[in-house]
Specification:
By secondary structure, the protein is α/β, with parallel strands linked by helices. The protein has eight helices and 15 strands.
């Protein structure tokens, strides 16, 4: 099995720092939900993760997982379905934002994958399994609870268990500090942040170089995305050369996002601009390169024709970008392990 290089792997881990406001809600019901969220802080601890994911080869002899993949279609009649499992009750606004974020990804990833029947443990210590029965197609455990108070860690996200048949995410996790969520609302970026982090759960920046994939290529100071479909759309949008991957701005941003200096307000750069942050055809193409049945569609996105890619890029080390450096505020989580599933 191929893994990220040590340099690339370590670039996906981060001690986070940001300024933020305390999350408050106007309704009594929402305040009650926040009180529940805050009271559960001691229960929310992510299961241990190591640099090298656990590879489970024989499920029948493994106490952690016993599962099987089936060809049964889900209730969505063949469409890709993202299931959100909230560990603590969300507010109405939080539920709305996560549902909208999932819908944006479901407009891009449209092809169903084989349903899964079995047991997948939770990404959190002491919680019931993330899956106990049949799943179509992916479940994301969502925890909105205190982590370290305002101005500390914003959140962590990534795949938890990955299928061996296609090396796509079967279960994932999104863990956010409620004390920082109002800061995102103040900037009108709450939904964009959730969509961005959901993209990492689905595999952007986290599953590029896993197993026999080698989508992240190039030298450390000129990395590029080697997927054919993403590059077709990169060129169609006006880019030249190869689709550039970010290599600057330190841990959390480098090697897990599109390059900010060239793709600007595309949602999967390391920066979220103040304003529109579209999921472009470039990102849609990259999902197809990962192996998803993705539609060749994207949200309206303007890239100046002739924008240089990795072969022509020159970037001042002191450059700054207007907007929120989401890459410097997140921890991208690598998989805990792999679920043995049948061939595609």
């Amino acid at each position: 099995m191929k893994n990220l290089t040590k340099t690339h792997r370590h670039s996906l881990w981060l001690a986070l720092a940001m300024g933020a406001f305390v999350f408050n809600s106007c309704s009594e019901d929402a305040l009650n939900v926040n009180a529940v969220q805050e009271s559960e802080q001691q229960l929310l601890t992510l299961a241990p993760r190591t640099d090298d994911p656990i590879i489970i080869k024989d499920l029948t002899d493994n106490e952690i997982l016993e599962a099987r993949a089936t060809g049964a279609a889900g209730e969505d009649r063949g469409r890709f379905n993202i299931t959100l499992k909230f560990l603590l009750p969300p507010t109405e606004r939080q539920q709305e934002v996560f549902d909208q974020a999932a819908a944006r990804w479901e407009r891009i990833i449209i092809k169903d994958v084989p349903s899964f029947t079995g047991v997948i443990p939770s990404s959190f210590t002491g919680f019931p399994p993330a899956v106990d029965g049949t799943l179509d197609d992916i479940v994301i455990e969502v925890a909105l609870a205190p982590i370290d108070g305002p101005g500390g860690i914003l959140g962590q996200a990534g795949p938890s268990f990955v299928r061996t048949s296609d090396y796509l995410t079967l279960s994932g996790v999104m863990f956010f500090d409620v004390a920082d969520l109002d800061f995102l609302e103040q900037l009108n970026l709450f939904e964009d942040v959730i969509v961005h982090e959901m993209g990492h759960v689905l595999g952007i920046g986290t599953l590029w170089n896993i197993a026999d994939r080698n989508l992240l290529q190039g030298p450390a100071d000129s990395p590029y995305f080697a997927g054919r479909k993403a590059n077709v759309f990169w060129n169609a949008e006006g880019g030249t050369g190869e689709l550039p991957i970010e290599y600057m701005y330190g841990l959390g941003t480098a090697y897990g996002h599109w390059q900010e200096s060239t793709l600007n307000n595309e949602l999967m750069t390391g920066f979220l601009n103040l304003g529109e942050n579209p999921l472009s055809r470039i990102t849609a193409g990259s999902m197809a390169d990962l192996g998803y049945g993705a539609a060749s569609v994207g949200e309206s996105y303007d890239l100046p024709r002739g924008t240089p890619g990795v072969d022509l890029s020159t970037l001042d080390a002191n450059i700054t970008a207007e907007g929120l450096n989401i890459g410097a505020m997140e921890t991208l989580l690598m998989p805990i392990g792999f679920v043995e599933t049948g061939k595609k």
